[in-house]
Amino acid sequence: xxxxxxxxxxxxxxxxxxxxxxxxxxxxxxxxxxxxxxxxxxxxxxxxxxxxxxxxxxxxxxxxxxxxxxxxxxxxxxxxxxxxxxxxxxxxxxxxxxxxxxxxxxxxxxxxxxxxxxxxxxxxxxxxxxxxxxxxxxxxxxxxx
Length: 145
Description:
The chain is mostly helical. Helix content is 77%, strand content 0%.
């Protein structure tokens, strides 16, 4: 196996691990805020409070994705796969959203990572919404048909 392929795989795995850590931090932050606010009775009662929490969850997930794109851009810039940092950010954003750029192995690697992270964010936002609905209407569906 040529050494450039091995080093690209090594960089790809390391940066993927970094994106998982960033995403884990974002998910943990949201879970702890959800739990704390549900226990205090802040969430699950008023629509606008729930909507604000969902919007905050979505924006925090977006911030996590942007940090992950920046991490991939840093890897591209450091490995000299692109001309400069702005090209790295542009290429990284394209690949993270599943439009791989010219470079051979890291583009598809980042695209797969981005798809997984977007899927995880979507599932998690859905779970938060589902939990808020449950908190708001707890017991409302316990009547016979």
